[in-house]
Amino acid sequence: MTVAPASTALRVRTRPLRLDGRLLDVLPADAGALSWVRDGEGVVGWGEVARFTASGPERFAEADRWWRRVVDRLDAGAGYDDVRLPGTGALAFASFTFADGCPGSVLVVPQVIVGRRGHRAWITEITPADAPETPGRLPVPSPVRPSGRLRYADGQVSAHRYRAAVAAAVGRMRDGELEKVVLAHDLLAVADRPLDPRFLLRGLARRYPTCWSYAVDGLVGATPELLLRLRGRTVESRVLAGTMWPGSGPDGDTAGALIGSSKDRREHAYAVDSLAASLRPLVAELHVPDAPSVLTLPNVSHLSSDVHARLDPARPASLLTLIGAVHPTAAVGGTPTPDATALISEIEGLDRGRYAGPVGWVDAEGAGEMGIALRCAELQGRTARLFAGCGIVADSEPDGEVREAAAKMRAVRESLEG
């Protein structure tokens, strides 16, 4: 289903802004918090002037066409952008479902966007073209509501059921059916009062400043994994696969143990090869590192590879069309990906919704940034639904994968609890 923009043309205007505090602190309450922030930089937004929703395998292409129509109707005359940095001008915040058949993929065009890069900040307002010009001032946000007391309960897939699914997947891989599958499970946190997404966002940004803290339509998280960034002709991706938690390995040398783990190196190679194979037909140049590095976070460490590419000038592409080509990668699906996603549907038992789907923003030129929706919760009233998943290969050990998923859930649990 598509909800069209307003019948009148929309005006967009970006102005410099003096912003002394933190970017996330400007979000007002109950206005649909939107966020893509890392190390204090990025963009946040609120309000809504247009929305797109869809499902199905063509959802990325449909979203791209819809966004182009919105952009074509914008009144962006001379002087509409006084800043001209990545993230200025009109933006749509985006969050897509993991599975083709699942409803809920969404693009939201906010009324107000506030951004920061380095020492420069700005405010973008998107309003009906016939509305009076506004001065570009920030509202005074109301206090952030802490979560209060939380009660935890099993979600659709308990830890016990998750362990059984991992064991079943290991058996199928040992029989040679596939090489890797990513399985996930969920957990419910129920509060005594409606949850404030700003509280979870701030907690995640404080604990995980090098991750991208995101919020789109009730999905709130902090992902360490950049699926794709497009600026001009340059395409970038950060692939994460292969995980250990603090204290793993001899003498607590987690990084050394991770680099030396054949299981994790193999899992990582599947993910990198998957992304490279999807991108290669769409780009003129592709650079993949010879070996991964280690990304260390407070709760886990990951094998990490930064992939770079250049678009072919003869075959221009938007971020949304590129995302449609690469999702899902082996990092969140498995290898071979069609076999892995079929096995996920068969044995996981979880409606992932937008967990492990692309999340981020796209600008009027079709560029932008999108990560993979990991370390997240879907907020609805008093309930937060937390997700975590692990890459499973033939020598995975079910109890170890349950512990790894619990370590990944720590990010959201601790941030929800304050």
UniProtKB/TrEMBL annotation:
Top-level EC class as recorded in UniProt: isomerase
Domain Chorismate-utilising enzyme C-terminal: 160-408
Keywords: Isomerase
EC nos: 5.4.4.2
SUPFAM superfamilies, sorted: ADC synthase (SSF56322)
GO MF annotations, alphabetized: isochorismate synthase activity
Recorded catalytic activity of this chain's protein: chorismate = isochorismate
Matches recorded under Pfam families: Chorismate_bind (PF00425)
Family annotation (Gene3D superfamilies): Anthranilate synthase (3.60.120.10)
Similarity annotation: Belongs to the isochorismate synthase family.
PANTHER family: ISOCHORISMATE SYNTHASE ENTC
Protein name: isochorismate synthase
Record organism: Pseudonocardia alni (Amycolata alni)
